[in-house]
Write a structure and sequence with these properties.
Blueprint: H1 2-14, H2 19-27, E1 31-35, E2 43-47, E3 55-57, H3 64-67
Antiparallel strand pairs: 1-2, 2-3
Organism: Pseudomonas savastanoi
Protein name: Putative Relaxase
């Protein structure tokens, strides 16, 4: 959860407003995989150093509504 909160802060501070820039930012933190590529449900997963498995970034705040348009239609980080 802390990683996700830090990532949101970086998105805002760096002015990330495209999915490509978001994916590049996430890639700075570890090995990434694009899930459901090309579909409406596409999201990125990142395996952080020292973690046994990846962290899925499919929360509302990591979708185009926020990344591109800075709008939130649901709570930003689901539990």
């Amino acid at each position: 959860r802390q990683f996700k909160q830090d990532l949101v802060k970086q998105i805002i501070e760096r002015g990330v407003t495209t999915r490509a820039d978001f994916y590049a930012l996430v890639a700075e933190h570890g090995e990434t995989r694009i899930r459901n590529e090309g579909k409406d449900t596409e999201y990125i997963s990142v395996k952080l150093p020292g973690d046994a498995k990846g962290t899925n970034l499919k929360d509302t705040i990591f979708q185009d509504d926020f990344i591109v348009r800075r709008e939130l239609k649901k709570p930003p980080l689901e539990a």
